[in-house]
Specification:
Helix content is 38%, strand content 29%. By secondary structure, it is an alpha+beta fold. It has one domain: Yope Regulator, Chain: A, CATH 3.30.1460.10. The strands form 2 sheets. The protein has a 6-stranded antiparallel beta sheet with strand order 2-3-4-5-7-6. A two-stranded antiparallel sheet has the order 1-8. A hairpin with a 6-residue loop joins strand 2 and strand 3. Helix 3 runs antiparallel to helix 4. This is YbjN domain-containing protein.
Length: 164
Amino acid sequence: MLRSVLAASVLAVMPMAAMAQNSIDDDSRIIRQITLADLEEVVTDLGHTIDSTGVVGDVSVRAQDSNGLVYILEGTACGETGRCYGVNMQVRYTVDTPDYVAINDANVKRAAVSVWHSGSTLGISRYLILDGGMQMENLGVNVRNLLAIAPYAMEVATGQAVEE
């Protein structure tokens, strides 16, 4: 009898253990809306650190990757329930004197992101619309792409990039 109870307990715990081992790299859940908890999950599954939440809205996370690059994930087109139908991803730099020709060049050279300037901020962003659904894994891929492109886009936008 005791063996049956132990075996049943082990079998009941196994699916939970398997779920806990999932990472964003094999997360095939389809999401059509995103919450603050989802954004936090993306950051932690990527192995990054959450610095704060609610920075640019209720559904937003300020995070940092292992190289110290700070970024923001912001839910957009949100309803009253805290569920959002879009995600804006941003890396922001402080720039004293913008070179608008170079910023335009960065936009052309890195079409996967938008490079923009406002005040003293040079931003590199990527926007996702979730209406038709997207795998959670793809959301992580998009964050990784932004973080890979942002430093080079900043160099191009400030005229510091080595010619390709």
